[in-house]
Amino acid sequence: MKKITYEDLLLFKDGEFDFVETLSDEFDCTKAHSRAFEAMKAGFDIKSRDYNIFVVGDTGTGRRTFVRQTVERVAKDSRLASDWIYVNNFNDQWNPNAIALKAGTAKTLKKDIKKLLEDSLKALDSLFEGEVYQQKAQELKTEYDKRQKDLWNDITAKSKELGFNLKIAPNGIITNPIKDGKHISQEEIDNLEGKEREAYESNLVKCKQLVEGYLYKSRVLNNEYEEETEKMNVESAQFALKPIFSKYEKKYKQYKEITDFLDKILEDMTDNLMILMGDSEEEIQKMYSRYQINVFVDHTDEKGAPVIFELNPTYSNLFGKIEYLSRNGYLYTDHTLIKPGSFHKANGGYIIFEAKDVLNDFYVWDTLKKMLYSERITVENVESRSGYSSLATIKPEPIPLDVKVILIGEPYLYDLLYEMDPDFEKLFRIKAEFDYELNNNTENRRLVASFMKTVIKEKQLKDITPDGVQTIMEYLLRLSGSKQKISTTFSKISDLLIEASRLATLEDKEKVDESLLKRTLAMKEHRVSLEREKIDEMIQQGDIIIKTKGEAVGELNGLSVLNTGDYVFGIPARINSDYSLGSSGIVDIQREVDMSGKIYKKAVLTLESFFEANYSKDFPLSVKATTSFEQTYGEIDGDSATIAETISLISAISHIPIKQGIAVTGSMSLKGEVQSVGGISEKVEGFYRVCKRCGLTGEQGVVIPNKNLDSLILKDEVVEAVKKGDFHIWTVDHLYEAIEIMMGKPAGLKGKKGKFPKDSVNFMLMKNLEKFHKKMQEEHENDSKNPEAEKEHQQHCSDKNK
Questions:
Q1: pTM (2 d.p.)
Q2: How far apart are CA 153 and CA 159, in angstroms?
Q3: pLDDT confidence of 567, banded at 50, 70, 90?
Q4: Hey, CA dihedral for 396, 397, 399, 400, is it positive or negative?
């Protein structure tokens, strides 16, 4: 048992943070999270699809900043990733080809292709409008015109010999019969008789055969002319274009896929010269788009491996998509409308995103796993991936995947995935755990101070004084719940500095000092403490009964903690106990009506076991003892009230009053040892706050576990009250020490004869228990003389057991 002094509550020595005035260290996040850094470094070094990284840590500990800085540091010294382009597949336009290029080459190639096409079209225009080509074309036409004319002259001469004159009409060739060089009419033909008639009809058949033969030969000549013309055009075009294409083929000779693509363009252009040299702009544009390249991924301006932090990891943002255009009322797409996702951009480097965002969409998580397993990434719209689209679409060639995936999430997400998804363990073998606290030593204090300086510099805030740094450090100790640990909730440091800097600006102060920071903390607390103030008012007005003066039997103040989400505060809770004769043992009202959790029920059983082990060795307990938390209307849980309930019961049975100005908290073992509890600072401050409202007497205080002394980090007001003697704090290791403080009498230990010393609490307790036992025995003997009464008594006991 120890009474806490003012010196016990001090956290730092004077002048301990004077080094801040000359501090110039840059904040090194790897030192603050060395465990996570070592794990991530191992993940970076192992080049395997299975060794992706899951960063585990609480929100506000700087996980994102740490991961980004660590990855960027590693990526800076890594090799550049490849550019990727998609080009038209001339053999199958539904399956565009993917080509990898050296970083920065894709954009240059796109410009070169554009220039190549412009030069090619100019060359073709010059070619087909040039004098040489026109002369060749005219010579070829003249030659075939002469052959057509000779063919016509030959057939007309032969038809005249047969008595017919041929004439070309819009609907074909007309055969006109002649006689003696003159045209004869249909009437004259009808008047022909005998052999003359037969000769006419025979010659007419021969003439028609000559015409058919002419038409066939004429078509053959036309086909030959077209073929020769096309051959001449192709040869001329190739002659004009090859020098242009050769220039770029030499430039990109190291990329076989590019030289093959250029050959395909040349072949396709020469095969479609009529379209390219035609008058239809729409058709020309369609042909032009076939030769364009899609710069899918470009790393021109990057130095080192790519790092992508995807803040909105939807399916299309991660894995890309295929867009469509509307043309003449129908949807159209091609290789130029393939859009990359973050995985394509991060390929060859690192991609980071929040685990909870990925798990919100089944298709994202499922596609991510399949992609990592196959080590290839494809572009497919989510509606096609899910089977809900029947739209005809292209299927781009998959790209080899080489990326390190880094997920960031809370511990519960990691545990959930590890338990529920067998693939998770196989694909994310590196767990990088973020510690939520640092050891409180000089090196780490200097490290946290350097973080403050970094925040001030980056956000252009007011500078901070040494006593201001000490105030923030005390705040971090309180957040960690231990004097030996510094909380790494860096986001709270940033928030505090920003708000304190605002206050300094309003008050025209050059630096943020201790007083400014403490007022800032008070303002932050005031914004969220409305519920606490309402409860305090109800206690002060007597709506909630809490006694802070005098003594009472079986009644004391326990301490509890309420958490509203953004604010945690302590309030006292009145615990009452009473008893009657019986054999039911200890009855806890909250447990009986199912208003308690499992830990609380365990604590009540511990209390019962303690009573049986210490006060029921010589005779059975012949008492029905009842304990209850007064004015609680919701479920309660935890074991921090075990000491309080035990003392309350001992007081009720022994008839020894408890000091109402002293509250108590602590868990208890079966041996009566006082165990540590949570929220100790809030609990102490909560009871102090109530005592202050109701009036400090100089005798009030709290009893806490000795093991919680390291966790006791109090506000200045409470520390000053302890210094002045207005408020007291005791630490205890055993229940009996707490009894002595709260009842003003020693608990008493058994002597050699197994008896407690007189005037001790335990002596009075055992005396009353023994008296109850004798009284129960007398009643039982009286009942045994009355069979009916005995029967009723047994039935009553049976019902109670049920």
A1: 0.79
A2: 10
A3: very high
A4: positive
